[in-house]
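P.,

For your records, the input lines for the assembly:
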Amino acid sequence: MTATPVRVAHVGLGAIGREVVRLELRRTDVELAAVCDIDPDLIGADLGTVLGLDGISGTVDAQIVAGLADAGLDAAVGDLVVTHTTSSSLARCLPELLAAVERGAHVVSSCEELSYPWVQAPEESARLDAAARAAGVAVVGTGVNPGFAMDYLPVVLSGATKRVDAVRVHRVQDAGQRREPLQAKVGAGITTDEFARRVAAGSMGHVGLTESAQAVAAALGWDPADTTETIDPVLAETPTPSAFGTIEPGRVAGIDQVAVVRADGVERVRLHLQMAVGIGPSQDDVWLTGEPDLHLIVPGGLHGDLATAAALVNTVGSIRHAEPGLRVMSELRPPRPAPTR
Amino acid sequence: MTATPVRVAHVGLGAIGREVVRLELRRTDVELAAVCDIDPDLIGADLGTVLGLDGISGTVDAQIVAGLADAGLDAAVGDLVVTHTTSSSLARCLPELLAAVERGAHVVSSCEELSYPWVQAPEESARLDAAARAAGVAVVGTGVNPGFAMDYLPVVLSGATKRVDAVRVHRVQDAGQRREPLQAKVGAGITTDEFARRVAAGSMGHVGLTESAQAVAAALGWDPADTTETIDPVLAETPTPSAFGTIEPGRVAGIDQVAVVRADGVERVRLHLQMAVGIGPSQDDVWLTGEPDLHLIVPGGLHGDLATAAALVNTVGSIRHAEPGLRVMSELRPPRPAPTR
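Structure tokens returned:
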């Protein structure tokens, strides 16, 4: 049952990235070869200190190319998997992804826009796909959402149906149970005017919902091009405690976001995400309409941050079996954990 | 979104097999090239008559080799997928599986013992694996159970966890909602003595539960060798209507079957299957103990017969992307349906 551990280099030491590295250090199926970040305050820092762990040796490397060289990448194409957590923006990640791929590393990234980039970023997608194919490696964007709860899970469930006519997912996350940055991200405590201003500026809302909807559509044979997305505030109805103090009634408690894919004018995919302080209970629901209809429930919901770190590390084993190129999760064998040390 | 349909030859025209062929005729992602059975009464019969469908041309072929030749198999290795529904017994299926594989066809079979044959049938497994690798094709055993509800689904769910310590699945199927052969299979209406006699003779119970438990264990890094299975009767408590008349209290209404895998003395996997007339409501529950704990519910449960036919046809697309050899479902990308005609 024991296989040779997979060598991994990690890039990006934000909150999720540190969680990924902590997990990689514990897992028996991976061997951490290098850890990289671009932050000058982190470069050369003691890894144990950065992670808040005792008994860890090593320092943080300067940037991705140096880190990969340290990892002895040149040994064999596909011998190294880069786990990558630097940005939600594909445009910002692209140079890093290309650097890894061109050196012969598979990449598993938390970049939300990478989870299904073909519609929003066709040129970047084609460029990354070509580079990965040329290098004989695979690249995928994943996490819990996008990457699992609202896309991979409904596609998996569809495997038990003869025909699917429509997919609907409802994910409720009580942001009050989540870390402070998530509460800030969903606008906890701001006014409806400020909410509207941020939506107009494109800085409000969960990144990746459109990508999830398109990933589901494409996996089930529907053209994902016609996708619409809406973002509305969830308002506090009573005084609601949050990481930023009490949210008064009428102020924003979080977001209510919907992405819909229509193909030939027929609604095929509807993903509804509610993340707000005090909105609980958290839960994931998947409904398939078809032959037969199916309903799947995850009471309590899949945990956002924890499951994203898990999904990334669990996909390390899957990406090595993927066909070369830019992949989407539904093209990968199921990620799964391995025993920890 | 449209790809070239995959050519398929189907072998075995029992109830599930006919359902598979009916689905293949409707699906846009497959093109049915041949249908085979060994029953002398079926060979040469009009396919539309056998299936109870109008507007279908073609006849039933004599046996697998002839059927494959009809399908023009020699064109290219891996160009044809055989869907196969002849027996639960790997020993009985093996010659058919080898014949298909050796002619360069991928195989998706409903043979329950094929879903994870490595522990119970190591020699047959190694032989089939070697033949498939030599031919450059893949073989897998699947269906809804084994193949999905109690094995693939928990493995998929584990992808959202950092660590799994134990897996527990409880599947309740109200046999009263299922076809007559299923009610007969679970012993509806027989005495407890007769039940015990059939258990002792090895002719009672659901085939594949041990294989499902071992598939889960292996996918999560636990040695599947130490597996135990028990079968007990579910007794009718009140007069219960069935396909065979009323089941009197104290008579058998169905089965209560448990498979457990222990690794290093620790219980890791516990699959509990209850199939009985009047036992409803049907439901599938999956619990993972780990980091974090997770619970997944499919209210109403995944439909046995319907979902098995679906799972087989849906896996046609996945098997073509699998690595050559004898595969288990957790090594395959998620099966999914395609639009129907």
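Two observations worth noting. The mean pLDDT of chain A is 92. Chain A touches chain B through 59 residues (CB under 8 Å).

Regards
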